[in-house]
Design goal:
The complex is a heterodimer of chains A (123) and B (105).
Chain A lengths: L1 H27 L3 H27 L3 H30 L12 E4 L2 E4 H9 L1
Antiparallel strand pairs in A: 1-2
Helix pairs in contact in A: 1-2, 2-3
Chain B lengths: L1 H22 L3 H26 L4 H25 L24
Helix pairs in contact in B: 1-2, 2-3
Classes of the chains: A mainly alpha (123), B mainly alpha (105).
């Protein structure tokens, strides 16, 4: 079936494109938080497009069921791992490179703005 | 042919992730690189299974996805607490203050 082959090519090529894009992003971006964006791009789009391309190639069979299981597992655990890395980086004192030092304080609950904290405590 | 193109792209991504894992000034850059290398390995095993015509490789890919996720969480726990074991553990750095400038190791 030619149409299934063409669709499978399209999905595999776009998955490969997003993965190379994510790799370039992880090398070139300046800060661990922005590199996390590029890595998340690879975990979701790169993996999903490649696996859909493989599923189209396999048709409806046990192989497709296993690919769906791999996809579901990557889909649910990649955001958890990314969030854990970012939260650990924030908790150990690394601050985003684009944040201004005088108004942002990094805590594990998130990046807190100083004037919002002082407003809520004075109100 | 399409599997060969996909394999080359995944290998290029793995090389870039390893470069970040070697270069990264903090431990979190390295953890990020290793996590990316793990998911790229899962996809590489799946594509190689199709390339060689052996669908048994997908079981390997599924198991490795589980293992790499658990490994990433274990690395982060070790960096934060200095230990992998007990229930009452104190983080080895105060919240919001860096362990040291640059690499927490």
């Amino acid at each position: 079936m030619v149409i299934v082959d063409v669709l499978s090519w399209v999905f595999l090529l776009s998955g490969a494109f997003f993965m190379v894009l994510a790799g370039i992003g992880v090398l070139r971006l300046p800060d661990v938080f922005s590199r996390m964006h590029a890595a998340g791009l690879k975990d979701t789009l790169g993996a999903a497009l490649t696996l859909i391309g493989l599923m189209l190639q396999a048709g409806l069979s046990l192989v497709t069921a296993k690919l769906v299981l791999i996809w579901l597992f990557l889909w649910f655990t990649s955001p958890v791992a990314g969030h854990a890395v970012t939260r650990a980086a924030l908790a150990s004192g690394i601050r985003p490179i684009l944040a201004r030092r005088d108004e942002v304080r990094a805590t594990p609950r998130g990046v807190v703005r100083e004037e919002a904290v002082s407003e809520s405590s004075s109100a | 042919m399409m599997f060969a193109v996909s394999t080359v792209a995944i290998l290029a991504t793995m090389a870039m992730a390893i470069a970040r894992a070697l270069l990264g000034p903090t431990a979190f850059d390295r953890t990020l690189g290793v996590n990316m290398f793990g998911t790229a390995t899962v996809l590489l095993i799946a594509v190689l299974g199709f390339l060689t015509g052996r669908p048994e490789f997908l079981d390997l890919a599924l198991v490795y996805a589980l293992l790499s996720f658990v490994g990433t969480i274990a690395i982060l726990k070790y960096v934060r607490y200095g230990d992998l074991g007990t229930a009452e553990m104190e983080p080895i750095a105060e919240e919001g203050e860096a362990v040291q400038e640059g690499d927490p190791w």
